[in-house]
């Protein structure tokens, strides 16, 4: 009996080891952007062989890269998802060099097509980068989410929808979730600028951080000025820290992390954001990575934490399917 049991186990083992999700590519004609955009989608193990409906995580890339970053060897989201046997559809959209904001500055599509590539988007052809109307928030809310819910077997309710992002994508994931709690029940940020208006000491001191009360031109943020302008109220509309006061307790599950040696001050922003969460009595998870910097190695190492965080919320809401 022992020998036959061992043989049977060995017979079954390859099926288990080979079980994995698949990556697929899709396109969507966006009325908000006036162009066709591409996206990558992770379909979990068992998707093709069942009629099961799945929760969805929208995975937002950072500044200067594309949706392909998540499937690159540097991030390997598919491998991470397979390693935890994720039973979720993961959508990786192309957000160009934005933060899912409806920009106040119009686009000049023809001029964009003729311009040299942006410094950090050299791998992206102009036809994939340029848009006619830079309404990226509308693209996510009015175009992409309805498209995904119609094209894939999702559970099309807010309790089965989450959003994550890294760097500028972390900012985007948090402001989109707070501004649209009717669509998202869980949000995660990896090294995100979750307090855009933070103005305080480089080494964060609790109680001493403050937020800017006006916007003045600063070298290096010209692209952000084009998105938001110089009206402080416009910035507050998309600043996660400023938006927290609109949240009700238990309305949104919040996770954030950051390296303590982040070169762009996002760790201090995260601490400032957490202080506000605590003031408001809003439950959250904030994890810092000792010595961590603002790079792909840190982002990849944190993907399992946000995925598992979202899974926990899905399980509590009763929308997480059993593994096949």
Round the Cα radius of gyration to an integer and report it: 20 Å
Strand line-up of the largest beta sheet? 1-2-4-3-5-6-9-10
CATH topology: Rossmann fold
Distance between the termini: 28 Å
Q: What integer is the average pLDDT?
A: 90
Oligomer: single chain
Helix/strand/pairing class, anyone? alpha/beta
Low-confidence stretches: 1-18
Beta-strand residue fraction: 15-25%
Q: What helical percentage do the residues reach?
A: 25-40%
Summed up, the helix count is 11
What is the strand tally?
A: 10
Instruction: Categorize the overall geometry.
Output: globular
- Could you describe the largest sheet, including whether it forms a barrel? 8 strands, mixed
Order of helices and strands: HEEEHEHHHEHEEEHHHEHEH
CATH superfamily: Alpha/Beta hydrolase fold, catalytic domain
Walkthrough of the structure:
The protein is of the alpha/beta class. The protein has a single domain (16-317), classed as Rossmann fold (3-Layer(aba) Sandwich), CATH 3.40.50.1820. Helices cover 35% and strands 17% of the residues. It contains eleven helices and ten strands. It has helices at 2-18, 77-83, 109-114, 126-129, 136-151, 168-179, 222-228, 232-236, 240-243, 266-280, 296-317; strands at 22-30, 35-43, 56-60, 89-93, 161-166, 186-190, 198-199, 210-211, 253-259, 285-289. The chain has an eight-stranded mixed β-sheet with strand order 1-2-4-3-5-6-9-10, with helices on both faces. Strands 7-8 form a two-stranded antiparallel sheet. Helix 2 links the parallel strand 3 and strand 4. Residues 1-18 have low confidence and may be disordered.
